[in-house]
């Protein structure tokens, strides 16, 4: 969730500009194209690393450690 909040904060003006135009009659595909262009550089590896860091920061253990402790 924090990743999306950071992305939204970073691109808030861009998204607001696109959404404003979309409400003025521009096709929704413009929004989808923007998302595709802007976020294709976030790799699965980067996303997984971020998830692991945030999970450990929140719960004090890795997801694997959490899974083992809940068995």
Automatic annotation (TrEMBL):
One of its GO terms (molecular function) is sequence-specific DNA binding. Gene3D superfamilies: Homeodomain-like. The keyword Ribosomal protein does not apply. Residues 46-69 form the HTH araC/xylS-type domain. Keywords: Transcription, Transcription regulation. The keyword RNA-binding does not apply. InterPro entries: Homeodomain-like_sf (IPR009057), HTH_AraC (IPR018060). This is Helix-turn-helix transcriptional regulator.
